[in-house]
Amino acid sequence: MSRPDPDLAGTPTRAEVDAMAGPVLLEFGATWCGHCRQLAPQLAKALEAHPDVRHIKVEDGPGRPLGRSFRVTLWPTLVFLRDGMVVRQVARPSRPEVVAGLGEIDGSADS
Fold first, then answer.
1. For the chain, does the N or the C end have fewer beta carbons within 10 angstroms?
2. pTM of whole model > 0.85?
């Protein structure tokens, strides 16, 4: 999947995710997933307005522990976190859900 986090050498563990500071967006999906491909350009555009959000794309599938720890069952699933805490989680999100989630985790929804 595109735009990997340069600080990660692979999929983070749940403990690593829980320890991440600041706003983080986990994007669970698969490279061959049509819904994931459809979301990609919309998500990229929305992320442009939130440069402080750390975006981590996670290639998911059966038995992958990180996805299972978040109870991911549909792709794409976005998990919006702030300082390791889940603020919002949505499967197959709409554009308004993406924008709202990004605003919540980077604090721009508070202003």
1. C
2. yes
Name, in order, each residue with C-beta under 8 angstroms of 56's C-beta and a sequence gap of 6 or more. Answer: 4, 5, 8, 12, 24, 25, 26, 27
Per-residue pLDDT, 108: 84
Catalytic residues: 33-36
**Residues 18-59 pLDDT 10s:** 999 999 999 999 999 999 999 999 999 999 999 999 999 999
Q: Which residues contact 8 (CB under 8 A, 6 or more apart)?
A: 56
